[in-house]
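Journal club side-thread
Mid-discussion, someone asked how the predicted structure for our own chain would compare to the paper's figures. Pasting it here so we can look after the session.
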Amino acid sequence: MFINFRLPALLLIIIWVLYKVIYYGLNRNRFKLHRELLSTLCFIYAVGVISVTIFPLAIGLQESFPTKNNYVPFASINELLHHFYFMVPLRNIGGNILLFVPFGILIPMKFKKVNKGFKIVLLGFLSSLTIECIQLWLTFRSFDIDDIILNSFGVYIGFLIYKWITLIFMSRQSDEKIHQGL
């Protein structure tokens, strides 16, 4: 039997929202919409990553699924790039990169002290490594060092997007201050 994560994920999100509504119903003076939207977005992103990387879970199945672990950097990327159908590398390589782009954007937005590229990429690397280690112990998933590399690259791209957006807003704010001073 396989347990899919869609229903539990939806229930977790509903519980999260209800918790926030009740919490801020009791503590009205602490509510800040932008902070809560960011926290909720981070929570939904984390649930989404878990649902894609860990689930479905095989429960009660005695048989072992054939998995192919990869400990050699760039081996599976090279294999994918030589696949006869272009959608396979696009889905696997692009998917692993895109999965962690939001990480590179959301973490520096949520945690202001973690705003250096090295810290963000290291945190993304450790998060991806944790996911891959969990997959190593699951009989229907496989460990792939290339996933960690691609996920880390996605974090870096996300961080660059975050910095680019931050620079745009900072330049607009400074332009507005200059125009207000004239």
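Post-session note: The two ends are 69 Å apart (CA to CA).
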